[in-house]
Design goal:
Elements: E1 4-6, H1 8-20, E2 26-33, E3 46-55, H2 62-78, E4 81-89, H3 104-113, E5 118-122, H4 124-129, E6 136-142, E7 145-148, E8 155-156, H5 161-170, H6 180-185, H7 194-215
Parallel strand pairs: 1-3, 1-8, 4-5
Antiparallel strand pairs: 2-3, 2-4, 5-6, 6-7
Helix pairs in contact: 1-5, 1-7, 5-7
Length: 216
């Protein structure tokens, strides 16, 4: 299986989405950098650069999913990105498996078009107990089902990812996150969450400066 790494924004939005709606199941799609993508390759390395929050209550309404995926696909093409996976958090705190996740048909449709797709399940227990370690489980599609990757192989592009996400949660940035349910209720809201991306970039830059000072 190819390696899967996540940029800070991708991981942060997954966690913020789950944190905003702790009593709901949530889901979204993952975008990968399209620069090195090879069509049809099932085991290529993926750099997940962003995640797009979909729903917290419209999981099974296919017209809404079609609207969302069409808009996301158009935006992704403009940014040289591809829809390369799916994420979800279960409603029940103890459910942390693919089988219990909402909207699995979306994940199946993604892997149909993109064989290297990943399915990320939010680990609800780690969300509550310990944010010093990744609160996700990554799965790849093989032999007709989603199989978990080694938990020790959750890779981040930045060493500050967990620190940044913890900072965002302390500032309660999750309340500002917009998913497609929010956007369909009010089309003036920004489903790309550009404001949060800018905040993440600022925090990352600040963390890097602080680390440099500490090492001097």
């Amino acid at each position: 299986m190819g390696e899967v790494s996540l940029e800070t924004s991708a991981y942060a939005k997954i966690i913020l989405h789950a944190a905003k709606y702790p009593h709901c199941a949530v889901n979204g799609v993952l975008l990968a950098d399209g620069s090195n993508i090879k069509s049809g390759n099932k085991n290529q390395d993926l750099d997940i650069v962003d995640s797009i929050p979909l729903f917290h209550h419209s999981h099974y309404v296919s017209p809404m999913a079609e609207i969302a995926l069409t808009q996301i696909e158009l935006q992704a093409q403009q940014d040289n990105r591809v829809i390369a996976g799916y994420y979800a958090a279960c409603e029940n705190f103890r459910d942390n498996t693919v089988e219990k996740c909402p909207g699995q048909k979306i994940a199946e449709k993604i892997v149909e078009y993109f064989p290297s797709a990943v399915f990320i399940v939010v680990d609800n227990k780690r969300m509550v107990q310990n944010l010093d370690t990744p609160a996700i489980k990554i799965h790849k599609y093989s032999e007709g089902k989603w199989k978990p990757k080694d938990a020790n192989k959750v890779l981040f592009q930045s060493q500050y990812v967990l620190e940044t996400v913890s900072h965002l949660l302390q500032r309660r940035v999750q309340k500002d996150l917009v998913d497609f349910d929010n956007y369909l209720d009010d089309s003036t809201q920004d489903w790309t969450n550009l404001g949060i991306e800018k905040l993440i970039a600022s925090i990352n830059a600040s963390n890097a400066i602080d680390k440099e000072k500490d090492s001097e």
